[in-house]
Write a structure and sequence with these properties.
The structure holds 3 protein chains of 3 kinds.
Chain A lengths: L1 H8 L1 H13 L4 H9 L7 H17 L5 H15 L6 H5 L1 H12 L1 H7 L2 H40 L1 H9 L14
Helix pairs in contact in A: 2-4, 2-7, 4-5, 5-9, 7-9
Chain B lengths: L1 H21 L3 H29 L30 H14 L1 H4 L14 H23 L10 H10 L11 H19 L1 H6 L2 H23 L4 H13 L10 H16 L7 H4 L30 H14 L9
Chain C lengths: L6 H5 L29 H6 L21 H15 L1 H8 L12 H6 L6 H16 L16 H11 L7 H5 L6 H14 L5 H13 L7 H19 L14 E4 L3 H4 L3 H15 L3 E2 L16 H18 L3 E4 L4 H14 L25 E3 H10 L15 E4 L2 H5 L5 H10 L30 H7 L1 H14 L3 E4 L2 H14 L4 E4 H8 L21 H6 L1
Classes of the chains: A mainly alpha, B mainly alpha, C mainly alpha.
């Protein structure tokens, strides 16, 4: 497939533009930080995004290893799911890739009449977006579950005990504390 | 905005000195203002340090950056987590002379195939180059205020000109100082993070120092001034027999005025980190707070919830669980 | 952020880039999951804190008292006079930016006001305006007026700092944001604007001696329950004592270890260790909390809560005090207790009754950290250990902020870990020891309502855990802090999954061979030991 070739040829430009667009969904001062620091531990958010999009691009133009793509997609969604984005904002970054590809490969697509192939790639991207919604929901559900678990774990022994000895005055205690 | 403001401020200062010298207000710019500036510097510096000194150190709060001294067989990090005064002196020396904390960023991580925190290594290098050359340049200038010039000042001067190029010999520190100050300035302008946090008060001293360095270099190599007369003036200042010889050259008064502003500005600005670094309680205390009691001069009297009150409230349940009590009822 | 998208959102491109503004012109965006609830008046009243009232953080009107500004500025002047650190740190910052990317909240959220330097500038701008000559020039001197919006901004960001001190390590002048946050919170508390999450434990702890408000009988029955479990796992009946006069040692640990999972398993480790040693020690129900939320409130409240430990040691007539695994508890014990409530001249210099080791480093405060105590025991061969029992764990160690940067306990827990388990791997260098990343929930920020903030703040830590999980197959994250034990499990669950969290003494408890124990089939969690997986099923 010709367009895959183009994708992998121009992967650096595409990745960079896409990354910049994603960074653009954050406030500018945050975006600057995401772009300037590239260390895995010093800037895990930027690192995760940039590693993720590298993998997604590689797979889009190659084998499309679903497991691998999902893993990296999940890493990114996991971050965006708790960054106070609306659901559409949180997963919408996938669609930005369409923009990038159309722009970066515009000449080649016209020249070699690759519209069909472009559509195919775009349906792959749509697929990714679909999966992303699932991932987003899973993350949000996880957050609710964690919150509930945490509350339970913090007083797990008290709860268990109050079930064992009904007379224990749990309600007397102020739950505001721990 | 802060940068433009500071730049304009320094340009205005240069213009003032220029005009003043042109108007032959040499007594003002050559004697009165420098004296005043040094006076303000000394008084302001002392006032600030006294102010810091008046606030006590209520708690013992060193930031520990290495293994504590605990069990004898555990290797203790005597400089990064000193347990004795000697260790603290060592830690402070590393901090003040080598910028240990900034240097920490040098610890690079190659895990993802590239050196990281590289920019911070540059910050360390830039800062140390800046400060070291600043000190050397300062010392070099002592020869203008001493007669005869002490040999150690001459030695530093000679060492500084070791390249032996140009007439007069190029002094490397002046160039490095200018380069380092320019780096620190460019960093503020082009590093997005640092730009975001920078205030006019961060740009102003940099422009001022760059102005001082540039005027100094111009004076030494390009727009030469009569060095004998300069020394006559500076010795006059140093010995309180002030004299303002004619025909020194305008550039000298620009240089001197900027230095005066620098001195006068110093105590009211962040430049006071010169004094403050020695007083920082997270660095200048030994981590021995469990071995030696630290005293808080204002240790407050506070309302407590005593054991007696506690037992009074819970005596019955304590008794029922067999927990010992002080009073039976 | 709006719940429903506005028409404009639908029409405009997703990738918006707001114009860059100066930080002073950028208003706070109150993000859901990023701020705590406000304190209830009853809790503040109970501990005698001023200006308690019903109020809501999200409402425009915080119902501040009329003269709030005066109170704030007077309080600030007072603190400037009392704390050299405060005055100095207000004056000497050169904004070099070395600290900027060291804060886990900044790394996680990317919010520039979470850069330590800027967090401090929030308050510094007020300092300049009202307490310096240059500040009279106003904005050009980096000064700004104290307004209600500014106060709210301070509040928002001082409750987005965990006082972890990581920035202080990298600052060329040792400027410590923890110190500045503490001052900020002192001022906030003058206006009755504490968080609910902090004020609740304060009131509880003041009254009952522990955060949850456990009364003496509840503590005891809780222990009974734990002891039953221990007997089941080990065949040994452990019999701890409470409030016993004449014991040699008073043991104090965070109360979360009595009732929170996985903290209880650490507590079981202590119980087994002390029992096996035959240590002459007692627990106290009055001083039943090592943690001290006063530390996150005001120095006076910290002193009030902390006073119980020495008072109880004195009343019970013990020789010295041993302290369990906790982070901020130890910062207070190590750097503050002796100063606030000492001198402890009624105690003796701590000596290990089993090895004769004198804990010289604790000779004035007379309180020894449990890992110092245990490491010494192991070194002297006083414990029989079977590290194979922990062979199902590949362990890494999270250095807690407070014990790292406020004490320097690094080798003691590692020595214990290397003695009680066979598979130990460190996380990357710039994420451990003095450079350790915070769990994201310290300093009273472990509230449920800020789960999102905590997840992001803990992301740098989780990220390093993930790295060692992928690289070495790490499946257990050990630590010596009760807050860590409470908050790391959800953090790891969200970002990494399948890595457990435990205290160092839980692993010790697993490996410790007890006199008279039955063949151990389960670990302290009741899960089969390695090699025993089938046994449980057969029975």
């Amino acid at each position: 497939m010709k367009i895959s070739l183009l994708l992998s040829e121009k992967k650096h430009e595409i990745a960079k533009t896409w990354f910049d667009l994603i960074a653009g969904t954050y406030p500018q001062d945050t975006a600057n930080f995401l772009k300037t620091q590239k260390n895995r531990f010093g800037n895990p958010v930027g690192y995760t995004i940039s590693e993720g999009i590298d993998v997604i691009l590689a797979e889009l133009s190659g084998e499309m290893d679903v497991a691998r793509v999902s893993r990296h997609l999940d890493n990114i969604i996991r971050i965006r799911a708790i960054q106070d984005f609306t659901p559409s904002q949180a997963v919408g970054f996938i669609f930005l890739l369409k923009q990038v590809i159309r722009k970066e490969l515009a000449d080649e697509i016209r020249e070699h009449q690759l519209c069909d192939e472009l559509l195919k790639i775009e349906s792959h991207i749509d697929q990714l977006a679909n999966v992303s919604f699932d991932m987003y929901m899973a993350c949000r559900e996880k957050m609710y579950k964690l919150r509930a678990n945490e509350l339970r774990n913090r007083t797990s022994r008290i709860l268990k005990m109050s079930n064992m000895f009904k007379e224990t005055d749990v309600e007397e205690k102020d739950p505001a504390g721990f | 905005m802060g940068m433009i403001f500071s730049l304009v401020a320094v340009i205005v200062l240069v213009a003032i000195a220029f005009m003043g010298a042109k108007q032959n207000l040499l007594g003002l710019f050559g004697v009165a203002i420098p004296y005043l500036a040094v006076l303000v510097f000394i008084a302001g510096f002392i006032r600030k340090v006294i102010k810091w000194g008046q606030s006590p150190v209520p708690f013992h709060i060193p930031t520990t950056c290495g293994q504590q001294k605990s069990l004898p067989w555990i290797k203790h990090s005597s400089l990064d987590n000193p347990s004795t005064t000697l260790g603290v002196v060592g830690r402070m020396a590393l901090e003040v002379l080598l910028f240990r904390s900034l240097f920490r960023n040098l610890k690079t991580d190659m895990s993802d195939g590239r050196a990281v925190y590289g920019s911070n290594k540059w910050l360390w290098l830039g800062s140390i180059a800046f400060h070291v050359t600043f000190v050397v340049v300062f010392i070099r200038h002592l020869r203008f205020f001493m007669e005869p010039v002490p040999t150690w000042v001459n030695a530093i001067d000679a060492a500084d000109g070791f390249l032996q190029v140009g007439v007069p010999h190029l002094l490397i520190t002046g160039v490095v100082l200018l380069a380092a100050a320019t780096y620190l300035l460019l960093r503020r302008i082009f590093n997005a993070q640092v730009k975001y946090i920078s205030l006019p008060a961060d740009y102003f001293p940099l422009f001022l120092i760059i102005g001082i360095a540039v005027s100094g270099i111009l004076m030494r190599y390009f727009i030469k001034v009569d060095i004998i007369k300069v020394k006559e003036l500076t010795m006059g200042l140093a010995t309180f027999h002030t004299t303002v010889p004619d025909g020194i050259g305008v550039i000298f008064f620009v240089h001197l005025f900027l230095i005066s502003v620098f001195f006068a500005y110093f105590p009211f600005s962040k430049l006071m980190h010169l004094g403050g670094v020695f007083l920082s309680p997270t660095r200048n205390l030994a981590n021995n707070s469990r071995a030696v009691r630290h005293v808080n001069p204002w240790n407050p009297k506070v309302k407590l919830h005593t054991y007696e009150e506690y037992e009074d409230e819970f005596r019955e349940v304590m008794k029922s669980e067999g927990i010992p009590v002080e009073k039976e009822s | 952020m709006a719940d429903k998208p506005k028409p404009n959102d639908l029409l405009s491109e997703i990738n918006y880039t707001p114009p860059s503004r100066k930080w002073m012109d950028t208003p706070v965006e109150w993000k859901k999951g990023y701020y705590c609830y406000g304190a209830k008046p009853k809790n503040l009243d109970y501990i005698g804190f001023p200006n308690g009232r019903e109020w809501n953080v999200t409402e425009q009107d915080w119902k501040l008292v009329d003269n709030w500004k005066e109170i704030f500025l007077e309080g600030m002047e007072n603190l400037l006079k009392k704390f050299r650190s405060f005055r100095l740190f207000m004056d000497i910052c050169v904004r070099c930016g070395a600290c900027a990317d060291k804060c886990h909240f900044f790394i996680g959220t990317g919010d520039p006001k979470n850069m330590p330097v800027l967090r401090a500038e929030l308050l510094r701008s007020i300092y300049r305006r009202y307490f310096t000559i240059a500040g009279k020039l106003g904005r050009i001197a980096g000064a700004r007026d104290l307004t209600e919006d500014v106060f709210k901004e301070l509040w928002y960001y001082f409750y987005q700092c965990t006082e972890c001190r990581r920035c202080s390590v990298f600052c060329p002048y040792g400027i410590d944001t923890a110190e500045i946050t503490m001052m900020g919170r002192e001022l906030i508390n003058l206006l009755g604007c504490c968080t609910d999450w902090i004020s609740g434990p304060l009131a509880n702890c003041y009254r009952t001696g522990n955060h949850l408000g456990l009364q003496p009988h509840t503590i005891k029955s809780n222990f009974e329950y734990m002891l039953d479990d221990l007997e089941e796992h080990t065949g040994v009946r452990v019999e701890p004592t409470f409030n016993r006069k004449g014991a040699e040692i008073l043991f104090v640990t965070p109360s979360a270890d009595f009732f929170a999972e996985p903290g209880v398993f650490t507590c079981m480790g202590y119980l087994l260790l002390f029992h096996q040693l035959g240590l002459d020690y007692t627990w106290s129900t009055y001083a039943s909390e090592g943690g001290n939320f006063g530390f996150f409130t005001s120095n006076e409240m910290m002193k009030r809560l902390n006073s119980k430990i020495y008072a109880e040691a004195k009343r019970l007539g013990v020789k010295w005090i041993l302290g369990g695994e906790c982070g901020h508890m130890w910062r207070v014990l190590h750097q503050y207790m002796d100063t606030m409530n000492g001198p402890a001249d009624f105690l003796e210099e701590p000596v290990s009754p089993f090895t004769g080791t004198k804990f010289e480093n604790a000779k004035s405060t007379k309180m020894v950290h449990i890992t110092e105590f245990t490491a010494d025991l192991i070194r002297h061969g006083k414990l029989k250990l079977d590290p194979k029992r922990n062979d199902n764990h590949t362990v890494t160690f999270h250095d807690s902020c407070n014990t790292s940067r406020g004490m320097g306990i690094f080798e003691e827990p590692r020595y214990i870990l290397n003695s009680v388990c066979n598979h130990f791997h460190e996380m990357p260098d710039n994420t451990i020891r003095e450079q350790t990343f915070c769990c994201g929930s310290g300093s009273g920020l472990n509230a449920g309502e800020i789960e999102e903030l905590r997840m992001l703040g803990g992301y740098p830590r989780a990220n390093a855990v993930k790295y060692v999980k992928e690289k070495h197959g790490v499946n257990m994250l050990s630590c010596i802090c009760a807050i860590d034990r409470a908050v790391l499990p959800p953090l790891i669950d969200y970002w990494v999954s399948d890595v457990g969290v435990c205290g160092v003494h839980e692993l010790l408890g697993n490996a410790l061979i007890m006199d008279g124990e039955k063949e151990r089939e389960n670990d302290l969690r009741g899960e089969p030991l390695p090699g025993m997986e089938d046994k449980g099923e057969e029975e």
